Amino acid sequence: MIDTDRPLLFLDVDGPLIPFGDPPPGGYPVHRSPHVPAGTTPGGNPLIARVDPELGPRLLRLPAEPVWATTWLEDANECLAPWFGLPRLPVVDWPVDDSDDAEDAEDADTADATYPPQGLHWKTRTLVAWAGGRPFAWVDDEITGADRLWVAAHSPARALLHRVDPRRGLTEADFAALDAWLRTA
User: Fold this and answer.
1) What domains sit in the chain, N to C, each tagged with a CATH number?
2) Reported pTM
3) With helix as H, strand as E and coil as C, how does 109-131 read?
4) How many CB atoms lie under 10 A from the CB of residue 10?
5) pLDDT: is 24 or 128 the higher one?
6) What is the CB neighbour count within 10 angstroms for residue 57?
7) How far apart are CA 54 and CA 29, in angstroms?
8) What is the mean pLDDT of residues 21-41?
């Protein structure tokens, strides 16, 4: 159940939680989770071993309600939540866009200069709608200035769009920035 008094924390998986791209010198560290049997990874996904299981308790200590905002969908609860020792989290269900752009353009806000807004991430509008007017922080490795501008113009509540370096995943600096912002949201 979501606590509506706290801001939302939308979590992408690939990049922020599972680092990828150019590996650091010596390769990515391999972790073992105290929450799952030794030598196993939930769902058999070998990339999960790149995830530091200590991120789970740290995410829960942030003053926010965590929500999966990833293409992993419910697999995030099946594969990652056990690794982190997390409870089942709400999952953003991405809409299937099967309409054509011309039809959508007729319904677009006339204040938007272009439709769809150039450079806007495909998750942005859905996350603002899902937040339902609540403050939120969105952690992702693909956030751009276009997303920040669009959210500032369309979200009735405060929002932090926090880009994470996908080669490193969430760092101490990321947690400090999130914690500071969430405490004032």
Assistant:
1) 8-184 (3.40.50)
2) 0.83
3) CCCCCCCCCCCCCCCHHHHHHHH
4) 27
5) 128
6) 11
7) 13
8) 71
